[in-house]
Amino acid sequence: MESPLLLFPQLNISASKDKSYCKVMKSMIKEEPHKASKPGAKQKRNRLSLLLQKPEFHESDHLGKPGNLAKTASVSPEEAVKWGESFDKLLSEKAGLDAFTKFLKTEFSEENIEFWMACEDYKKCKTAHELLPKAKTIFETFIQKDAPKEVNLDFHTKEVTSQNIHQPLITTFDTAQSTVYRLMEQDSYPRFLRSDPYLNLLKGRNPSRPTLRRRSRSFTVNDFQGVRPDFTVW
Asked: Are 228 and 147 in contact (CB under 8 A)?
């Protein structure tokens, strides 16, 4: 008896076509989930990227924002007025020094006031034994080349200070401190007196609460009068 495939060759053709069709379908089924997963992964990466770009994920950015500027202890307008009398008067009061320091942070120049305060603390040393470690720390932090908080000093002042650091005295940083003091007095201090946080203190406003801005336009009931609802979206 002859084989059914020989008697009906069209069955063999049909069977091979079915097998090929099944292979193609299986490969397509395997590829589709794979393709679908790619956009999903890409969307996840995009969502993560957007989250990382949000301000709350960058705490350092908040330092320069006016809203975080002068959370100073309660200061009366009369006290704030005294800060405008002289730079020395501003620095002599704790609240004034605090407000000025926070202002310099918004200008990314807080190293100047930090150096000035470090020098003030240095001059309080009572023994020669205390001078050397403090002098070395101040020099390495604020004065030497590429220091993490290097202040702007002229070459002569920096050179003299570098030579005296090996046998430090109470007066070792006097010239450098005076230079930075004048820089702040002539440059940063006038801008501080014109800044919004200081002007708000003069007016008796709470500096910890940023001034509310009026919206350009608010919707009212009248805006919706005569407007016919569009139900096409349903």
From this structure: no
